[in-house]
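I hope you will forgive my troubling you with a question about protein structure. Here, with my thanks, is the record as I have it:
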Amino acid sequence: MKRFAALVAVLALVAFAAPAFAANPFMDVPMNHWAYDAVSQLASRGVVSGYPDGAFKGEWKATRYEMASVVARALAYVDMNKASKQDLELLKKLVVEFKDELDALGVKVDELDARVADLEKGVGKWYFSGDFRFTAKWFDGFEDTTWTVDRFRWNIRKVVDDKVTMNVRLQGGGGADLAIVRAYATVKFPAIGVTMNVGRLPLDWEGDFYATDHPGFNMNDAYITDFDPLTTAFHFIKPFSMGSFELFVAHDEVQDFETVLMDSNWLPPLVPLYDEWTFASERYVYGARLAFNFSEMFSLAVNYVKYDYADNALYNVWAYDGSGSQWLNSNWFNTVYSLAADWSTLWGDLIVHFVPGVTFKGQYFMQDLDPAWTTVTGYADNSPNAWKAILDVDQDVLKFTSLWIEYAQIDQGFVFGPDPYGWARTSRFLGDYNQAIADTKVLNIVAKQNWNEKWATYVRYADFDVDLVNRDYYAWSASVLYHYTPNIFFELGFDKYGGDGAPADDQMIWFRTYVSF
């Protein structure tokens, strides 16, 4: 938090001081000065983010104050993201060159050597962290009770050297055995400004577009990319002065997929009455993201993710009599479709900060589904769309609460990766294969209140207008959190479904204990 505050302070200082920089025409840095090349190298690796408008104007002659402002921003960045040793050495040279200007800006550089030494001391060390979550749930007036250790996580990080870090997460709970859910290496290539993650790694490109992901019941309403882990994958990140480019390729060796028997002309009693088969297929999942930060007020991103299966979705299956001894005549066979079928999503992200603390966010999704999806599910559209618009207001603006107002429209057949709007239980507008069962409109409102360091509350409400008879429903929750210490809190909450499409267990009380370490 202190580092974030430091970064904000530096950015604010640079933004307000920018006009003054331009008013010093007699303090130009000569165009052949080594600092231009140094800053260009740092910018190419994403360590320097440029002028306050988001663009590094390398072809323009800069004043010493302007150059110092870029160095100040880089210092704040290094403090949060721990650049490579080469980056630090280059920054040290820039700090020495522009020390007087940095002092005039109020940027403290006397401790830079100590900070660099601290970063270098981290090489070779092990770091451990984790969390524990115990939840007691009572449904329908205490008639049904569930008490579970629904999460235990142990994070292990080893800083091998200034270019390589190993990351491992052990996780269990919720009925699952303790297992390695993350295991990946982060490798920096300073010469080309690329960072690579390889292994079983997390990836989420939609974190700015859901209300929160606090340790209680999640509100991480990602539509596509909340991968944790992204199976076995390569993930590359290339920052540049106005944004970043990301690319990942993942592979699953074997996946089992439930299939649907499309012909019903099998003659009993020779054939059992079940109509589902299971087939296996390997697949690739790949995606790309191009993000632009045009300014501190405006950003835009384009994203693409595709599931690409090795096997066809159509199978001809010989009919089996179910007795364990006899196959029917080879002329008798049925057609079986499997949802080991390709699908892809292309979407755009837009974020506009109107004034400090008030932000508009929007997303638009377009999908392309293999025809097998229509054959299996019966949904006619193989190219469903979805979009959402969000108004996000910080508590600093409204004083007593933050406010998240989200409106979304989703076409029938739209395929989700995670379970959006599920919160305490499953989203009711989703059917088999995590598809929208009908055209759906969603109104999602979240209000959170941080009263002091100990107490916090939140209320959330969502209304689902589902274009099917007796399927509309709403869901709402209220919760009180008490932080006993910075590392432990208790949460008491109430969750309720209502409307024609609500489940039978339409209300729940929960008490949660959460410990971080």
